[in-house]
Amino acid sequence: MEGQAVAARMREWWVQVGLLAVPLLAAYLHIPPPQLSPALHSWKSSGKFFTYKGLRIFYQDSVGVVGSPEIVVLLHGFPTSSYDWYKIWEGLTLRFHRVIALDFLGFGFSDKPRPHHYSIFEQASIVEALLRHLGLQNRRINLLSHDYGDIVAQELLYRFKQNRSGRLTIKSLCLSNGGIFPETHRPLLLQKLLKDGGVLSPILTRLMNFFVFSRGLTPVFGPYTRPSESELWDMWAGIRNNDGNLVIDSLLQYINQRKKFRRRWVGALASVTIPIHFIYGPLDPVNPYPEFLELYRKTLPRSTVSILDDHISHYPQLEDPMGFLNAYMGFINSF
């Protein structure tokens, strides 16, 4: 009898825990996104939107040097946004007539439809559509990319090489710390879980919070160049905008796409004839040294490379903006 009484009390306790957990979980899942910091709010306010197939895409477009014909288009990485470029933005306006960046679909302030089949092909088409929207479709474009943006740049380069009408005319390409080779790319544990989680992925994306995000992202920065808590909150605010945390698993399918279309995208780089450069933070755990750099130099012997300081990691434009900018300007002024 005593054992039955204990079992009954245990059942009652678990029922009470369950009843308490349900509203707490419901409240957790409906936590509103964080407010934008003044700096991030200013970035959004100074930008604009255009519509691509009914979807709103955020972009920045600054006029820089008067009289220069040069245009640079910036392509950001995963899982962040065009705000990744803010530390070098002013420096770029001192060299280029137009400095343009967008938030890819599913990122930052752009729309984040779900369900949706996110693809590198669509993101490349969005870049082309933006330049048509700005009346720049016939201008020669310098592309500067990072991480996820490197793969979009590879697809744009492939289209350019096919001489298809309506495609970008690329003048130069500068890549940075992107997993352009599937065989040397080392995705984070959380990325692996979300990419291959199946039925678990929607649960994991809903349970993701600032603590999980910051603990997952911080290790890809160098030990002396890690973002401050306020900078991490800016990144998280961009992800949470329009419930972007709920599409991360869909966006991560780019890792599978990169494997499937390796020949197309690596082939576009390997046979390139335009000036091409790579800016590399060598402490990057996602694209590790020296394996990545050895394969890059073997595959692209014509490309020049800038290796930043030993402690710079996966986000070189944020970790060492002056070093990154100097490396890019050295490349741009070399041809």
UniProtKB/TrEMBL annotation:
Bilayer topology: Multi-pass membrane protein
Domain AB hydrolase-1 intervals: 71-321
Superkingdom of source: Eukaryota
Record keywords, A-Z: Endoplasmic reticulum, Hydrolase, Membrane, Transmembrane, Transmembrane helix
Gene Ontology terms, MF aspect: monoacylglycerol lipase activity
GO biological process: acylglycerol catabolic process
A GO CC term attached to the entry: endoplasmic reticulum membrane
Annotated transmembrane regions: 13-31
Pfam families linked to this entry: Abhydrolase_1 (PF00561)
UniProt-annotated location(s): Endoplasmic reticulum membrane
Cited PANTHER family: HYDROLASE, PUTATIVE (AFU_ORTHOLOGUE AFUA_2G14860)-RELATED, MONOACYLGLYCEROL LIPASE
Family listed: Belongs to the AB hydrolase superfamily.
Protein name in the entry: Mesoderm specific transcript
Species name: Lynx canadensis
